Each structure stands twice: as structure tokens, then as C-alpha cells.
């Protein structure tokens, strides 16, 4: 529009639900529009117009019936919103032409009608709003400029503003007409002495969301950030911006959250341009995106930067190309090259700047993760690329999803900060195997029912949510006693086990917390024993029929015990140190030869392996002990260490880069090349281990290439 100061169009609307200060908070549709033109140059007004709007649902709230006096029968005879908006635009344009004016700006009593009702409803109905609905004047803010002592902007009402300037309110029975007439009286009063006000501040609604990168050093106001929960997993930043249509999101202000497996968890952090828009976003709590309702909560700037912030120059350069559509590719072969990806996408979806528009995600050591991000110049190219979802590249199918700049930052931050393959911690200085002087800090099996099982947890529940759920009983949890249960795919199973300090405390928690609510779901709480917990964590099932053992029987999981070795006691610590302590087994005491008695030293059976048949895995903080022990204990100062050193010479394990993995179920004809091909993309140690640790022939039989591989 050429100018915004020629004419104001006073605009009023009512919905089938809440009105006034709660307008738009309940997602109800528009049913009434009233408007009148005010010529700012001549201080003249036009004809008062009133039109009903037919909603999709004519179910009116009691408040609406009382305030508007409308009935469902009247609304059924009205025109739909699209037709009413066309009539509005034609009527105003014709009247402006008769007045000799060329442009106009809407004037509303607060932003709710435009931001919380009109734009969201038009977005849901896929209506294209005229340009005039993207700019408006907020009468409350203009009045506050003229009368700053009238009170805070949010507390102003049409009645209070008229009373402050001593203008009698118009007497009108019909709803809508009364509000518009009073607004016109107030505007005309502000245009003359003593105010002579000029309407020069205009509110705007963003046409579309702008993507962009965010630096970790950027200051983000916590009063501008919200957390949206319950989003469909395939939602993009544009879908979230459409949900908040009418509110202005900051550039690059949508950050999709990922779970521990790098997949979207249905949450997003959204940053708005100011706190006013954030507060209006909070009023959209439990509004719908499709058939799903979305929860909206307050969040902090630190949370937003943790997800969306980045420091990588490579990512910053990749995201520096603005107005690009980002697609994420997942499941790429580790040997895939940029040429392979460009060939897979084909000529119908050219990548921006060729290979410069590709970003491969890698681990800190340079190994590929199988993920990549691709830039496209327009929506058409991106849609062509998405049609290749689950098509084959090499011998693997490739998944393609819409992505965001924040997701790029988050994925890169995740992989570059923490390797996916866990490795053994570097051993501390000289380690000496020690007699077990007290109960080891690992989970020991027993029939005492001092544990509880939580069943039916929300899949997004974290350790913090469980502790909050436990409430005052949290103090009765053993240190590191919370164990989340995940399934084979690494996804939450909805179960968790908690070790309590005593059976009485476990019974009390089961009684008080059973079927208590957590995130709109009730959680079942049962008392159980450590033995039952161990069976489930190792892959078994616990049901009303009792315990079902894991798919692979526990006695078959462990390699042979140390009693099978014909070795001297001095060799035992070195060979025992090759293995991690088990998660759920009690320590075994090696049998020393009868002719050479030795002190009873406790070692943990060698169970550092990857059992592909286990149906569950435990999640931090299981096991309930720091892994720094690595199946041997540092010699403590004092007489105990001296006594041990006197009884047996120390056996020091040299540093080992990597971890030892056991492979079960290999074909009998599998060779070394087959195993190395299986671990393509990972670094593995030399085949000969004799340079690391002196191992006997029988000990070496445990690490034959067909069963053990050092990564």
C-alpha cells in the first residue's frame, strides 16, 4: 500500500466461543464482522457495516449467545468466511474510491482478532488473506502514547479508555455495532486538540517463517521462548510456524528436538520476536495441528541455545545460504560419496551449488554416520527429492525428511561432541587386583522385594520425570538406582525399575504411587525383587504367569570361567582385566591351584559382548556404579594395599584403545574378512593381542577371530 495514513478501517469480530480478553483462546470460529471507515484527513466516518459469518460448526457457547444475541439458525443462512472477506474488501475499496482515498489500514482494539483468530482460522481453512490483514493499528498502544498515565497497555479496555478522556459511551443494543461506534469516537477524539495524534506505528504479521542459523554466543531472552510438545514426528519448521500463524517467530526461531537416537521426539522450542507474542503463543495450549492437540509451555533461552545453537564454521557456511529448503537424508552407506548422493537425487531435484549444498555428518574421528543434509533452492525441488523416500542407494534404502537449520546444528553437535561407540575409559595408574572387602556396588540378585517396577510410562519420560513422579519417596531410592528399559530398537519400552533402600519403602511407594498420573497417563507401580528386575533387564519378561527367561539362557551368555585356565595366579589379573564387569551378575572367585594357595580375589566374569538376542537394554544410570573400575580396583592407600602387594605381585594392564566385542551366531564358514566387512566403517585393532597382554594359549582361545573383535 502506498500510504498507511490515509484511512483507518475500524474492525471488530466475535467468535462462537470466548470473546473479549480470551478471544481466540478456544479455537472457535468467527461468526460476526463489523467495520467502519474513518478518514484521518477530514475527520469523517463512513457507513457502518455488519456481516454474519457461517462457521463449520454452529455450536455456540452460552457466553457467545449472551453477548452477541445470535442464534444457530441465523448463522446457517450466512456466507462462509472466504465470501465475507471478499465482500469486506470490495465494500471498503468502493467506499475509499468515493472518498478519493487510495489506501487504508485496519484498526483493532488489541491484536487478538487479527493474530489469534483471523490468521489461524484462515491458515486451517487454506484461505489466502488480502494484504490489508498483514498490517494493522493497535488502538490500545496508540492510546497509551497519548495518555501514558492511563495504565498498562494490557489492562486497558475500550470502556476504561473512554472514561479516562471523559467521553460518554455510545448506546447501542446490537453487539459489534456498539464496540465499533465507541472505537470511532475515541479515534476522532485523539485526532484533535489537545492530542493531535498521528497514527504512525503499525503492527505487522509475517508472511512466512524465515529459517536461519543461531550461534551459541547469541543472547536469547527467556521471555520469548516456548516449548511445543506432541508434534507429529514428520513436522517441519514451516508446519510449526503455520500452527503459530499470526505470531511473529524470530528468524531461525524453530528448533526441533531430537531423542538419544537422533530422531525427532515430538517437541520443539520456538523463539518469538518479543514477550507479547510469546504470551499469545501460550494461549494456544492444546490447540490442534491436524487431529493432534499441541501442548505449549514456557521455556528458557538456555534450552533454545542448547538445541539450536552451534559453533561449527562448516555448519555456519552451509546454512549461510538463505531461503533454502533443507532435506535430511538418513541411512546412507558409509562409503557413499557426494557424487553418489547427487546421482541418487537425479536431475529433477538439483542441489544448490552442487557438492557445496551437501553436508555429511561424521563422528569426531572422521567416520561417517550415514546422515547428510541437502539444500534445495525451491519447494518444487524439495518435493521431488522427498518422492525418493526409501529408494535404494547401493544396497540400502534411504530415508528423506524435511529438516531445519536448528536440526542441522543439533545433529552436528550431538555427533561431534560424543562418539556413538562407547570406549573403555583410560586406566588409572598402577592397578592391583584386590580382595573384595565389602559388597560390590553392582546389582546382585536376590529374592528381597526391595525394588519397584513402573509400567506404562510416557515414551518421552526422562529420569527427572520419574523422580518428580516419586515425589517425597525420592529420598528412599538407592544411589544410581533408577533403570530405564529400552527395546531392541533403542526406543523406550514404557518400563522402568527402581531400587529402594528397603522392602518396606518399596511396598509403601507401590501403594501410594500406583496409577498416579504422569504427563496425562496413569503409571502402574508394582513391588518386585532384584532377581525379577535382573531377568527383565537381561531380556526376560515379567508377567502374571511369573518369570520368562531371556531369549538366550543366561549360563550360555558368559565365556568360560577362570577355573578352566591352567594358569598361575599371577596371570589371572591380566586375563581377567580383558573383560568388563557384568551388569547383573555376582562376582566369581577364581579357583586357585591346590598346591599354590592364593588369597581369594574376586573377579567379574567376562561379559563385555554384544548379545543380539536381548530384547531390552538398560539406560543411564544403569549399572548403578561408575565404569571407572573396569573389573579391577585401584589399590587404596594404607595397610590393605601393602598386604595385597606383599601377597601377590601387581599385574598392570597396559592402555587399550577401544573395546572388546563378542559376536554370537556367526556362520561356521565365516572368516576374518567377513567379520572385518561386517564392521566396515569402524576402526579395529591388530589381530595379534600378544603385544598388549601376555595371554596363555588357553586364554588366547577366547579371542579367536570368529568370536571376538577388538574395536
From TrEMBL:
GO cellular component, one term: nucleus
Compartments it resides in: Nucleus
Coiled-coil blocks: none
InterPro entries from the UniProt entry: ESRP, Nucleotide-bd_a/b_plait_sf, RBD_domain_sf, RNaseH-like_sf, RNaseH_sf, RRM_dom
SMART domains in the record: RRM
Domain RRM: start-end pairs: 225-297, 326-401, 451-526
GO molecular function terms listed in the Swiss-Prot or TrEMBL record: RNA binding
Listed GO biological process terms: cranial skeletal system development; mRNA processing; RNA splicing
Main location: nucleus
Keywords on record: mRNA processing, mRNA splicing, Nucleus, Repeat, RNA-binding
Family: Belongs to the ESRP family.
Name by which UniProt lists this protein: Epithelial splicing regulatory protein 2
Originating species: Cyprinus carpio (Common carp)
Amino acid at each position: 500500500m502506498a500510504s498507511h495514513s490515509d484511512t483507518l478501517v475500524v474492525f471488530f469480530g466475535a467468535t462462537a466461543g470466548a470473546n473479549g480478553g480470551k478471544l481466540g483462546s478456544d479455537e472457535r470460529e468467527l461468526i460476526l464482522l463489523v467495520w467502519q471507515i474513518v478518514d484521518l484527513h477530514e475527520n469523517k466516518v463512513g457507513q457502518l457495516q455488519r456481516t454474519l459469518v457461517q462457521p463449520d460448526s454452529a455450536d455456540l457457547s452460552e457466553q457467545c449467545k449472551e453477548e452477541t444475541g445470535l442464534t444457530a439458525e441465523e448463522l446457517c443462512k450466512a456466507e462462509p468466511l472466504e465470501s465475507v472477506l471478499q465482500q469486506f474488501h470490495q465494500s471498503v475499496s468502493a467506499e475509499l474510491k468515493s472518498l478519493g482515498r487510495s489506501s487504508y489500514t485496519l484498526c483493532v482494539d488489541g491484536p487478538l482478532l487479527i493474530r489469534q483468530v483471523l490468521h489461524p482460522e484462515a491458515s486451517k481453512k487454506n484461505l489466502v488473506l488480502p494484504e490489508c490483514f498483514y498490517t494493522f493499528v493497535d488502538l490500545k498502544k496508540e492510546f497509551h502514547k497519548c495518555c501514558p498515565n492511563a495504565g498498562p497497555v494490557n489492562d486497558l479496555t475500550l470502556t476504561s479508555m473512554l472514561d479516562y478522556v471523559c467521553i460518554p459511551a455510545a448506546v447501542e443494543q446490537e453487539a459489534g455495532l456498539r464496540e465499533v461506534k465507541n472505537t470511532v469516537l475515541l479515534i476522532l477524539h485523539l485526532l484533535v486538540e489537545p492530542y493531535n495524534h498521528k497514527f504512525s506505528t503499525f503492527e505487522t504479521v509475517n508472511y512466512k517463517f524465515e529459517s536461519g542459523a543461531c550461534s551459541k554466543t547469541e543472547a536469547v531472552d527467556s521471555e520469548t521462548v516456548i516449548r511445543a510438545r506432541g508434534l507429529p514426528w514428520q513436522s517441519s519448521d514451516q508446519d510449526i510456524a503455520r500452527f503459530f500463524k499470526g505470531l511473529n517467530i524470530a528468524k531461525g526461531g524453530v528448533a526441533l528436538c531430537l531423542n538419544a537416537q537422533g530422531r525427532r521426539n515430538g517437541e520443539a522450542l520456538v523463539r518469538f520476536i518479543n514477550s507479547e507474542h510469546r504470551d499469545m503463543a501460550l494461549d494456544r495450549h492444546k490447540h490442534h495441528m491436524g487431529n493432534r492437540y499441541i501442548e505449549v509451555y514456557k521455556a528458557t533461552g538456555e534450552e533454545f541455545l542448547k538445541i539450536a545453537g552451534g559453533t561449527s564454521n562448516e555448519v555456519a557456511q552451509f546454512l549461510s545460504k538463505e531461503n533454502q529448503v533443507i532435506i535430511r537424508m538418513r541411512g546412507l552407506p558409509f562409503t557413499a560419496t557426494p557424487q553418489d548422493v547427487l546421482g541418487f537425487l537425479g536431475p529433477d531435484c538439483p542441489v544448490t551449488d552442487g557438492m557445496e549444498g551437501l553436508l555429511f555428518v561424521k563422528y569426531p574421528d572422521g567416520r561417517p554416520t550415514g546422515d547428510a543434509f541437502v539444500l534445495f533452492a525451491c519447494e518444487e525441488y524439495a518435493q521431488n527429492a522427498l518422492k525418493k523416500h526409501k529408494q535404494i542407494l547401493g544396497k540400502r534404502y534411504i530415508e528423506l525428511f524435511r529438516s531445519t537449520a536448528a536440526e542441522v546444528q543439533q545433529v552436528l553437535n550431538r555427533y561431534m561432541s560424543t562418539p556413538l561407540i562407547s570406549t573403555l575409559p583410560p586406566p588409572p595408574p598402577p592397578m592391583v587386583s584386590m580382595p573384595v572387602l565389602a559388597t560390590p556396588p553392582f546389582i546382585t540378585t536376590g529374592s528381597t522385594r526391595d525394588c519397584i517396577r513402573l509400567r506404562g510410562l510416557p515414551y518421552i519420560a526422562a529420569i527427572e520425570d520419574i523422580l518428580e513422579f516419586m515425589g517425597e519417596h525420592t529420598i528412599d531410592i538407592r544411589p544410581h538406582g533408577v533403570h530405564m528399559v529400552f527395546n531392541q530398537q533403542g526406543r523406550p519400552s514404557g518400563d522402568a525399575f527402581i531400587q529402594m533402600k528397603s522392602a518396606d519403602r518399596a511396598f509403601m511407594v507401590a501403594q501410594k504411587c500406583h496409577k498416579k498420573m504422569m504427563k496425562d497417563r496413569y503409571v502402574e507401580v508394582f513391588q518386585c525383587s532384584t532377581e525379577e528386575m535382573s531377568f527383565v533387564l537381561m531380556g526376560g519378561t515379567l508377567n502374571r504367569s511369573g518369570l520368562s527367561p531371556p531369549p538366550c539362557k543366561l549360563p550360555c551368555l558368559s565365556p568360560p570361567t577362570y577355573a578352566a585356565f591352567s594358569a598361575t595366579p599371577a596371570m589371572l589379573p591380566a586375563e581377567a582385566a580383558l573383560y568388563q564387569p557384568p551388569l547383573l551378575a555376582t562376582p566369581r572367585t577364581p579357583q586357585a591351584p591346590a598346591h599354590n594357595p592364593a588369597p581369594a580375589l574376586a573377579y567379574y566374569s567376562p561379559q563385555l559382548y554384544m548379545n543380539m538376542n536381548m530384547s531390552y537394554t538398560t539406560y543411564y544410570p544403569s549399572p548403578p556404579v561408575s565404569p571407572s573400575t573396569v573389573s579391577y580396583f585401584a589399590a587404596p592407600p594404607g595397610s590393605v594395599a601393602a598386604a595385597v602387594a606383599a601377597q601377590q605381585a601387581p599385574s598392570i594392564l597396559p592402555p587399550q584403545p577401544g573395546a572388546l566385542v563378542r559376536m554370537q551366531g556367526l556362520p561356521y564358514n565365516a572368516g576374518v574378512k567377513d567379520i572385518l566387512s561386517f564392521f566396515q566403517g569402524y576402526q579395529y585393532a591388530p589381530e595379534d593381542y600378544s603385544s598388549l597382554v601376555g595371554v596363555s594359549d588357553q586364554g588366547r582361545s577366547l579371542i579367536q577371530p570368529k568370536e571376538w573383535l577388538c574395536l
